[in-house]
Write a structure and sequence with these properties.
mainly beta, Hypothetical Protein Tm1070, Chain: A, 5-stranded mixed beta sheet, about 5% helix, 9 strands, single chain
């Protein structure tokens, strides 16, 4: 499991080339802060990337919330809002990938 590293934008700009994903990654609660983060997945692979983004919240009835299970089509990118409420208090948010070769990410905290 690899901890994703965030790029913090500045007024003058910051280069952001993306970094490789692992089969299972985590986003720490400290990166999410109180406003969350934007996660972009860039799939340069020939296959779709079937992902799971964990969600530690509960429904109004107290049941565990369902994890988000998006797919990023081969040769495309998708951007996701990661809400700080999704984070497990000890492990943060876990993001898994079905393919990792030529799949990269960019992570931007919102404050």
């Amino acid at each position: 499991m690899a901890a994703l590293v965030a790029t913090v934008p500045t007024r003058t700009g910051v280069a952001s080339t993306g970094a490789a994903v692992a089969s299972s990654d985590t986003i720490s609660r400290t990166i999410l802060g109180t406003r969350g983060a934007i996660l972009e997945i860039i799939n340069g692979n020939a296959s779709p990337d079937n992902m799971t983004i964990s969600d530690a919240t509960v429904t109004v009835t107290g049941a565990a919330a369902a994890s988000n299970a998006p797919s990023v089509t081969n040769g495309t990118s998708k951007v996701f809002f990661i809400d700080p409420r999704q984070a497990d208090p000890s492990t943060g948010v876990t993001v898994t990938h079905s393919v990792t070769s030529t799949v990269t990410y960019k992570l931007y905290p919102l404050g």
